[in-house]
Every structure is written in structure tokens, then in C-alpha cells.
Records
---
Amino acid sequence: MPLKIVIFLLCAIRVLGQDYIYLTTPSSFNDATNTVRTTIDEPNILESILNFNLREKVNFFLYRRKNRNKAHPILFPKERSDNQSAYENLDLSPFNPELQTKLLVHGWRSNEESDTVQNIKNNYLSKKNVNIITVDYRDIAANNFYFAPAFQIRQVGKYIAELIDYLVTFRNANTSDFHIIGHSLGSHLAGYIGAFTTTGKVGRISGLDPAILGFEWSGPDSRLDPSDAQFVDVIHTAAGSCGFRDPIGHVDFYPNGGIVQPGCGNNILDQLACSHGRAHHLFAESILTSLFYSYPGSSWAAFVRGEYNRTDMIKMGDPAPSNSRGLYFLQTNPQRPFAMGPFFGTFGFIWDTFNLLNG
Ligand SMILES: [Ca+2]
């Protein structure tokens, strides 16, 4: 069994807690028709995947500073065709079209109340005056059979895109002001939302360790890619196991090399799960501190050898500049605060400082 599949299984079993999994193969994928091709033989599973009611299963909540601890639900109309009265609960909502909107989506076996969403929401509201819209599709995401939600997020994404189009068309919002942030499976969901938005291209998508399982061999239409937003930034923290290994954004950050994160335990299962979750912790912290100094390079090995230029530094996470492109590397602490600012690679920094001071 190829090593890569073994790693997949380790990752999946850890999260699934069950004894079967289906894997995709490159030859079985058809980008034009499906998100994920699996060898599903069980008709009841197939039925549950294909038949689901989006209006019942997908919920939106709006937060502003004035209601940061009390979610304002955005209600769907009974008749979807009546766009003028759609989402009428918005009339009573604190949504402000003049502001940026952060749209937060969770991943597999998660929900709107999870840290992956709430930490980022709370940090934004403490730092910036923005609209926060959180999406909850927990009934879909809760399916232990990973490939069901991995398949269904295409439809979920299209459904969420309709809300963006509505806000732009009827509430004077600007498509460019939308920033979608998603962890794991939520990263690819964010890609679908961007791809299905019809009123323009959303301003930005941040993918936090995008899920690899079922997507590694997918074409760009079936996963997050740079065409999904004006600017796509990605943080890789469990690259090649739970998270996407290859760069799939305009800019891709690989903290600590991107494969395993420091402070994530000693056994392989804990390391994978913890490393996969580290991406959203790093992003949440970046909203507050803006201290993830990152440097461009060809590989982690080259970075470790000091083959980078400190003057090319950009900051990972929320402050990442929209014109940044390529691969970036950085070190982090093993615990909060994760950001090291300029004080990493101690000897390199001392050497740089020494040289600077001595002309
Ligand atoms: Ca895409």
C-alpha cells in the first residue's frame, strides 16, 4: 500500500473512528460532473448524499460588534423565487453594506459554534468594525461518511453564493468586500462559494489547511483555487496528510514546513489532528497580532538553510497583502502566542542584525 494512502487512512480513521473509508483515484475523477468520485456501493448512503434539503440544513447568522454574543439569524423565505422578500430578516438586522463582510464556514464534523469559526469571529469583532456572517451546515457536515459532505459542499456553496448575490443586488453590498474563510473541508466550500457567486468576484478567500482527502486529484473547479476570488491565501499546517500539500492559492504559507506543527504531541495521530487544526489558530491570532513574519522561498529546506531575504518579508494570515504571490515560510512557537515576529531563527537574526549594524 503506498505510503500516501497509509497516511490518508491514519488521518481519516483518527477523525472517523470507524473502520472503513473510500479513497479516490486519479482515473476515477471527472471534474465536469462530480466533486469527489468514490466507490460507493451502498444505496442508502448514496441516497442520503443526493437527497438533502438545503433550506433546512444550511443556516446563516449575522454578527456585528453590537451583537457579538447574540447571533442574528438570517432567515430564508418560503418561496425562493421571490428575491425581493428573500432573507427578509435582514431588514431588522445590523448588516451594514458599507463594511467588509467576513463569511466564515466550518469543515467536516464541525459547526458554527466551534473554535474554527468563533475564535476568528471574536477576534475580528474586537479588532475591526465588520459584518460577520457565519454559516452552519452541521447536519450535512456531521455525516461520519466523509465523502458525503465532501460531495455535498458543491451544492452548499452554490446556496451560500445566492446570499452574497442577494446582498449585492438588493442590499447594496459590494462583492469585493466579501472575505470568505474556511478550515479544512470549509476551504473547498469557500472555493465553491466564490466560484458560484455571479455578481462579481469575491475579494478574498483564506483557506486554512484545505482538506486533501478526496480533493488531491481534483481539478480547480472542484476545489479551492486562485480563480475563486480576487485573492486566495492558504495556510498549510498538515500538508500531505489531512491538509493539501501543493500550493493552491495566489500565495501559500507553510509554517514550520507545513507538514507537522511543533507542540502537537508525540504520536502520529495526535500530531496529524493537532497540526491540521493549527491553521485556524494561527489565522485567528494573526487578526490580533499581525506578527507572523514570513519569507518567500523555494522550499522549507532552503528556508532552513537561510536562503531567503529578510527584506522580502510579508505577514501571514489576515494581514497578508493581496498582491503577494508564491510560497512563503516561517517558524512559529509551539504554543500561544504562536507568532514569533522577527525573532525566529535566532542565530540568523543575530547574524543579520550584526551585519546590519556593521554596514
Ligand atoms: Ca475552484
---
Amino acid sequence: MLFNSLITFQYRALIHLSPTFYLAVLISGGNVGTGCQEGSTSYDECRQRCTCVGGQWVNCVRIRKEFTSLTDAERKRHIDTILSVSAIDSIYRAKYEELINEHFDRFYESIHTQEHFLPWHRYYILRYENLMRKADCTFTVTYWDWSLDSRNPFSTDPDNVWNNVTGFGGNGADHDNCVLDGPFRKGAWKRVRPDNPPPFSRQLPDCLTRSFRGEPPGEIELMKVLYFDDFNNFEPDLRGDLHGNVHCYIHGTMCDHQSASAPEFFLHHGFIDKIWDDWQKKSSDHKEAYFPTIDEIMPGTDLRPEQLIDLSNQPGGVSVEYEPFKPQEEIRKKVEGKKTFMHPGLYTTYTFQRTNIPTTSFSSLFPCFLPFISFLFQCFLPVLSHSSSYFLFVFHSVPCPTTLGAEPCFSCLRIC
Ligand SMILES: [Cu+2]
């Protein structure tokens, strides 16, 4: 906890500089299109990051950020745009309804199978972003990195996604779990209802509903999924464990076929898409994995999955980048630094067969004496007797007592 909060604190200090940064860049960006220094970058009026090539600002990129890394003013502007596009009397409401209902109407088509899930939803959130940008061209999809909030995912503290002033509002209340606070509260905002719900479908209330429960996967669990090199291991875990479960930890509207009508749908799918992007960045083979072999077009589109592979070349010539969330990057770097004596992830016979985790001896993996002893009793012996169990290693935030100085030690968590 200490470890996490220290990083978060440093990060908060950094992001509070960002309004000044924007201002400076926008002012000096007054010469956009009139000559610029080769290779320099600047932000255009829609806050795309552009690069100077041959005296012109080109290769402009939409930067998608983690929602809680935004300043309060940026959060407000983001949510105000969603409210203005989705308002009943908005000129964009009809288009918004059409888009939201498309996810409902095609729920049982192949949009949730391996062939289409990742690229279809990448295209879907892009179309959502395009629609929002009609009202405010600075809008980009934001993501919620739930892996860093997994210990306390549904906090309504001011920094959190679920705050009722700077965020998306809190948990549902009363018998029908309607959200009663924040910008999308009952009475103030109307979510999209399907035009023709099948008669047997569950009748959801008109309001946005939530019923928080459970804990989203943590950072180590996420790293375990990213660690797979085989697309057929990576994709099902991302789609099922990481994507599906988090939908239903928020529960309510998000755990229903009408989930796209919940505004947090796009926070969650932004993160799922970023995780795919993180995995794609491992190598050109990862980037190209699987989809070029799918010939059929994606439901409701005239595009093949392959056309969504490259985030820098999306339909309509759009280029997108996910801004790394600093606390998460720090943790990953920290964990990767331990590779010489410790691999994060799962130690099982099953895992050894599926991945290439080096089988170095356990004593050299565990330089901390006390954790090593407890590891022997809690983890290694059960591994011998339960080959179908597996074990997740987690960080302790306490300093290691021996040779590693201030480095954190490890312990393991048994998962059956
Ligand atoms: Cu979906």
C-alpha cells in the first residue's frame, strides 16, 4: 500500500502541472501550419499531438488518457461533452441512440467471440469518440485502470472515477439500484433503452443502475495475462477474466446486454483496448497476431478485423495513442527489474507448459530469507501435492530485511 501510494503521490504532483503545460504549448503552437522546427511536436486546436515534418504539422494523434490522470477541469469537460451529446434534446441524441443500441442489437452476433471481440470494440469506441468530437473536438476516450484500484475499486474519493463531483457518480441505491448521485443520476440523465427488446429479456429500470461488488484483477494478474505470448492464451483471458468480470463487478446496467448505455462502458473498454495495445507492442508478431487470417467482415461494418490492428492508422485515417498511466508503468518496471531472481506470475506445472517462465532454482529466486521459508511452506509444498493449483506472487510493501535493502519482498497467494 505504501509503495502504491508513494507512486500515486508523485504522479499527482506531476499531473497538476498539466494545465500550465497545455497553455504553454497552445500559445507557442500559434505557428501551426506556418513553418515549424523539424521533429518538434505541438498540440493543435483539438489537442491532437502533431509532429513537424517539412515545415508542416502532420501525423496528428489523439491521446487517450487514464481518467483519474485528468485535471478536475479536464474531467468536467469530458463528462459535460458526454452529457451534451446524450441529452434528450441534443442534435446528436439520435446518432448516440443508434450507436448504443447497435451493441445491444448485435450482442449475440460474433462481436463477443475471439474472431471479432477486440477489433470490433476498438472500432466501436472509436465511433463513440468520433461522435463526441462533433460536440467538442478535444474529446478522446478515457480509460479506467481498475488494476491499480483493485484493493478499493469503488471508492468515491475525489480522486476516484466514482466521485459524484469530479467523476461518474457512485453506487446504485434503493431497491432498483438506480444511481442517485453524480452527473448520470436518476432524473437528471436518461440512458438509452433498446428500441425492440425481446419480450423475454430482463426488464431494466429506465435509470442507470450499479451494484458494486468484488475486486477487479490487480496489476500482477494483469501482468500475468500480458506475459502470454500465444494469442490463444492472451485473448480468452483478456476477454473473459479481465473484460467480462469487471463488467459484472460494476454490475447493474454494466452487467446486462444493455451495458453500452452505461457511460462507464467506454472507460472499461478503453482500458481493455489499451491492454490489447500493450500486448501488441511486445513485437511485430504480437501486433499482427491472429486477425489477418480472419476473412469475414465485422458485424455491422464493412471492415475486416485486420483493418483495426494498427492504432496509428484507424478507419478514417485516425491515429490514436494511449498515454501510459504513470503508476502502472512504474509498477511494471519495478516488477520487470526483478526478473533476474524472480518472475512475476504463476508457478505451476501447467504454467510451465504454457509459457516460457525460466525454471531457475527457488532459492535464488527468493533472496529474502523469511519470505523464502514461508514460501516453502505455503507455496512450494502445496505445488508438489496439488498440480492443478497455481500460485500468484504478490508484492509486500515492506522493505526486504536482508540483502535487497529497500526493495520489496514477495509472497504468494494460492488460487485454486
Ligand atoms: Cu461488448
